[in-house]
Amino acid sequence: MKMPVSRVCSEHKVHVNILGDLNIAIDVTENRYNIPLDNLFGIAARKNPKRSFLFVSKLLGKHIPVYPQIPRISGALLADMFLCEIEGKKAFNSSLLVSALADQKFIPGALEEIEGAAPLLSKPTLFIGFAETATGLGHAMYEAFAGNAGFVHTTRDSIVELQSCFAFEEEHSHATSHRCYVPNDSFFDKFDRIVLVDDEITTGKTCLNFIKVLKDKYPGKEYIITSILDWRDSFAISKYEELNIKTLALLRGQICCNNVPVKVPGVVTPKNEGEFVKVDNVNLTSENKKLFTLESSQGMQSLVSYSEMTGRFGITSEENRQVKEETLKYAQMLSKKRIYDQSLCMGLGEFIYLPSLIASGMGEGIMYQSTTRSPIHSLSQRGYPVKNVIWCASPEDPAITNYIYNVVPGQYREVFVFSEREMGQQCKNHMAKELSKVGIKHLVFVAITSA
What we know:
By secondary structure, this protein is of the alpha/beta class. Helix content is 25%, strand content 32%. The longest helix has 17 residues, at 70-86.
């Protein structure tokens, strides 16, 4: 009989076997803050022939539910690393931030540290977060600085009225196309330095391709890459050194995998049809909205609204105060809608960071995660990081499947679903039906709508 998941660990080496087929070996070469690997990620098998496994982050609020403050603290750790290595300054009490990743009791102190010690950058710096997973991480890193910073994230969305200032393809992703929309080309002229933010660097080719595109269009910039994980081999590292591109990561190492597909037991879906769910709809009005035509993967067009606070169209430090004030106001409103002591707040797709900020102010007993396009094998076994999966179509593109992981039966009674705009009734009905099967009694759809 195959063991579902086995793991052998030492201080610097980890070997993981999934279902006797998939073998992953990790050799850690640098752990900047000595964060235990179990606090950073789990390892799961995924449905992707290019790479059959996935590091499932415990910092992002994506596949695994986290305390809603964790994404912000994770971004501040990247900011601390950046300031120490690039500007030679000490930013935050990093030990406190690391402690908060492992123990909830340190979270209030970590947030006070981030608020009180927010540094200024020595030169205008633009942070770019990669869609889908690192949109929140990039925003959190950018927001840790008090000034002289800007932020934009790449997007999978195809917006008819806007021309992407660049476009490129990601080699290892399940969704490869990246676009970037800023008010105008002069937006990049404000910045001397560009920092690319991702959750993981594997071969490093994506970042190099991205920098080449940027250099061709916006020459004369300094480029730095920051990530949680860096798995580049010596050859890839030498390529970066030749181009004088600095890279910073919380954890570095080498990985070796036999990359074979695994035979996962069939997913057991709840037999019950679900019970009655109380559904509420809450519209949070904002003046920071824009209307654009979104083109789906099937060529269908629809008029949708976007929040300007996400960074999808570029934001700067001067706007941070307004974002914080607005998210706090939203949090106070939504806390009054809670019925149960334990609630899950959930963002959709690229809409990660703002929902986490709102969730952070909604009181105790809140966990946070977001939907994803990434297809991962679920396995309800000890030691495996993805216990179950709920399928749902993207609200804007029915041809694209989104996944909700790790909402296990009986874990919550209440879910708040955050979207940049009001969802269609069909999507709401489907999500309500599926969540009812895992014991959800109260479902609140929260939309950011025009004032």
